[in-house]
Give the backbone structure.
Amino acid sequence: MTTHSPRLAALALAAVFLATGCGGKRAPRTPPVPVVVGRAEARTVPYEIEATGTVEPIQTVAVLPQLDGVITRVSFREGAEVEAGQVLFQIDPRPYRAALNQAAAALSRDRAQATAAASDAARYEALAASDYATKDEYEKKRADADALLAAVRADSAAVENARLNLEYATIRAPISGHTGSLLVHEGNVVKAGGNAPVVTINQTRPIRVRFAVPEDYLSEIQRHRVPSPTVRVKSDAGDSAAATGRLTFVDNGVDASTGTILLKAEFANRDRMLWPGEFVGVTLVLYKQTNACVVPATAVLEGQGGSTIFVLEADHTVRSQAVIVQRKAGDLAVIAKGLSPGDSVVVDGQSRLADKSKVIVKQGGTKP
């Protein structure tokens, strides 16, 4: 028994190794990773720039009184739309009408005196020519006539000034637009030359939206500035309704502190959807790119080495493919290099994938 024990021990050890080796061969293989797959396509994709903008009126006018006086009538409702030339306020016109009548009377008086003096000077001119009057007498009459003629011109200017003051007593809208809060009421005394407006008018039809974009887009904007690119806006609150206008202004310099360029767009705003001071989402549509290779944006993985996409092969394995993303267009990514239309790409489930991983396309996914 003792003599055969070494051989028995060696056989037992070999059996253990064989059992271990056979057990390793029977280890289960890694199961396929379930993924959702999309397809790269050639499409016409608009080149769009997203930004946030502020609505501002085309013009803003603070209406100031040009005369002192008492407001006797307010001819509009605050917050109403007014037309250029429409009467807004009436200042008591009586003092200014009286001043006009007085100036007109002075003009009539001096005009009559000037006419008489001119006749007198003409008569003395004839007398002086016949030596019935001296030259000095004639020159005095001529000087009197000239002085009265100058007085007539001064009186005419005074009449025009008085007439203008009487017109200023009626305050009219200088532009068409939307009125703000009423800052004076009937019975209030207003003063000329102050800084306190009686009302502010904003021109809101058309209206303007100002927004800034990174300077990286400047070359594309300049290249496609003519004809004026389309600009769409919608409320930051998420309203589905959008207004469409045109780019009308590109600033003449880049803001060095922010690295942005200021742009402005104009909108007809016939439905008054846009309101001064409102923040809006802005989409600047520069042009439409034809035959662009696009994939769902969720297919693109960003890493330190750049952008990659998992491409589905015919044997249901995936290949990690480096790509160059030109830009994002909504829920799509425009691929400049690395993919071709028709390639199948993984759009969901990438977190468990590596190069050459086996996959199974989940129901609803697109097979190559």
User: Anything to note?
Assistant: The first strand starts at residue 33 and ends at 39. Confidence is low (pLDDT under 50) at residues 15-20. DSSP finds four helices and 21 strands in the chain.
